[in-house]
Amino acid sequence: MHIHILGICGTFMGSLALLAKELGHRVTGSDANVYPPMSTQLEEQGIELMHGYHVEHLQPAPDLVVVGNALSRGNPAVEYVLNAGLAYVSGPQWLAEHVLQGRWVLAVAGTHGKTTTSSMLAWILEYAGMQPGFLIGGVPQNFGISARLGETDFFVVEADEYDSAFFDKRSKFVHYRPRTAVLNNLEFDHADIFPDLAAIEQQFHHLVRTVPSNGLLIYPAQEQAIGRVLDKGCWTPRQTTGPDGQWQARLLKDDGSEFVVSLDGVEQGVVRWPLTGLHNVANALAALAAARHVGVTAEHGAQALREFENVKRRMQNLGCVRGVTVYDDFAHHPTAIASTLDGLRKQVGKQQIIAVIEPRSNSMKLGAHREGLAPSTALADHVFWYAPDNLGWDLASTVADAPVPTQVCSSLEDIIAGVLALAQADTQVVIMSNGGFGGIHTQLMEALEAAQ
After folding, report:
1. 234 neighbors 242 (Cβ within 8 angstroms)
2. In sequence order, which residues have a C-beta less than 8 Å from that of residue 7 and are 6 or more positions away?
3. CA–CA separation, 147 vs 162, rounded Å?
4. 324, 356 Cβ separation under 8 angstroms
5. Of 122, 118, 131, which Cα lies nearest the Cα of 11?
6. Binding residues for ATP
7. Nearest to 201 by CA among 176, 178, 219
């Protein structure tokens, strides 16, 4: 079967393409924005990428068109699919029908940490010899690929609350029907499709309704929004994580790089790893709990996490140039920005931290998180914000009362020049964006190399 994927370079759709190819289909795809790591991964797997949404890409007609949720009515490819009567489906529905049906699905949902936690969980199962399938919205470095079918019934999926397609406004995760479900946390996000937090909570309620009574729900005990979701109805056994939960972590190092795991007050094992930040400690507890549900002891899981390599673009160390270390991070929400900087600060102490942030997510572009942006950077020493002319709101006034020195720039050149002026030995530069950010990572490192 020839499957053509519209929006193939999205993290979810690109992963879907890998699964379709592994099933033996001929897979092609088109997208308006093509950038690593997904474009690189697809090309390495021999999947043909086409730039733009031209109707010629759909001629001759494929057997099935999988439509990404970034596309809407008015898109030339969408209009052609409808007018020509081509067979089409949403990505989540295709995944559910052709990959997940009949399998033990372990789904990781929540506002933050989905990609990292699902990567941890897949790795724990792999380390235990369970050869799981997985679909993750990023590239876990332990695997070097974002999706595979696997060799057993177990399948780990990053379960996104974003809508499925222009013709299916349900959250993606409603299609997945997990037996093990992690609800990491819940905050307002995706302001382009959800009017408020209550609307997101309703979608999480729909997810909870699909988890069977012989399954397991795992969530932080202190999360009030998740508590409200479960108050709407829950028919599944639960386990809780965090300071007030059944699964707890006792830090041996403040930066979260070493901690003891306990369940119901009984120590299970020690995690020692290169990751930092309390958010990653919380992610680990959820992953360990989910893995235990399918038979992996927490002690064995803790051993696996010692060899865990984080996902690309999650505080990924790109290298050190003239004593300046540059990181690529996906943080695109005030909570994520603050958590990332907290972990780095505890790791590097008083060394200079420079944060470079692009407000690129749909919610950021709409200004939905404006009030939290300035406070989220408090643990940096200096912050550069990127405000292109088409941002649509006044970023400069939003961060005018920032707690640390802050500059708002309209060009990448100005940001690079500003970083160069401040950088010195033992400086940590964290570049935060959920997109390619114009290739600023490479440009900055080249500029650092060339600086005298």
Report:
1. no
2. 13, 29, 30, 31, 67, 68, 69, 70, 71
3. 19
4. no
5. 118
6. 110-116
7. 219
Domains of the chain: 2-91 (3.40.50.720), 102-305 (3.40.1190.10), 316-450 (3.90.190.20)
Rounded (10°) angle between helices 197-209 and 224-231: 50
For the chain, which residues score pLDDT lower than 70? 35-37, 188-192, 311-312, 331-332, 360-370, 452
Model pLDDT, residue 374:
83
pLDDT, position 275: 86
Q: Which amino acid is at 47?
A: I
pTM value is 0.76
pLDDT at 371: 72
Alpha-carbon 283 to chain mean position: 12
Give the CA-trace dihedral at 230, 233, 234, 239, to 10 degrees.
20
Q: Report residue 333 CA to chain centroid gap.
A: 11
The span from the CA of 248 to the CA of 235, in Å, is 24
Cα 105–Cα 260–Cα 307 angle in degrees, nearest 5:
60
Q: What angle do CA 71, 76, 80 make, to 5 degrees?
A: 105
Numbered residues of the known binding site: 110-116
The string of pLDDT tens digits covering residues 224-247 is: 999 999 999 999 999 999 999 999
Which two tokens mark 423? 């950088």
Q: Alpha carbon 11 to chain centroid distance? A: 9
